[in-house]
Amino acid sequence: MTKLHELVADLVLLAGGELTGRVRLQKIMYLLDHKGMESGAGYFYYHYGPYSEDLWDAVSDAKFFDGLREEIVSAGGSPFSIFKLTGSRARPAGVGKLPSDVVANHLGKMKNVNSTVLELASTVHWLAFVEKVPDWKSEIHIRKAGKTGQGRLEKAIKLLKDLEIAPT
After folding, report:
1. Helix (H/G/I), strand (E/B), else coil: 11
2. Domain for residue 168, yes or no?
3. Residue 98 φ/ψ region, left for φ over 0, alpha for ψ in the -120 to 50 degree band, beta for the rest
4. Is 167 contained in some domain?
């Protein structure tokens, strides 16, 4: 079985060798796990939605074992991470229990999506399927007040529909 740090490196590879943002990495991993990747990471609800300490341990391990590099850059006074791979890495046949081409397709849908939209998408999924909140549509506005406007919630739900994991 592939180790979680190897899955992290494989995701960055399949995302074109670069993935921007810690929130983005967390939410992509969460959503892919719910598409069937089965990374083995455990999640709990945190301020920015589903969160995995296991993933951050795996990022540290991937830096040591798999040539993952994290650059901290600043834009508009806000720091953010850019994850890149150093050296060469063979394209895996699969990532977790998903074929690589399926993962690459999903990454193509998610890697350039606004991180707030990814946060909303993963939180909607969490509310509907993990916490099983009957009125998740109202709850998302309570938990993510100020983030659901400007069409972001609609984009988040569309992303979940595109990934075929949207609640009804």
Report:
1. helix
2. no
3. beta
4. no
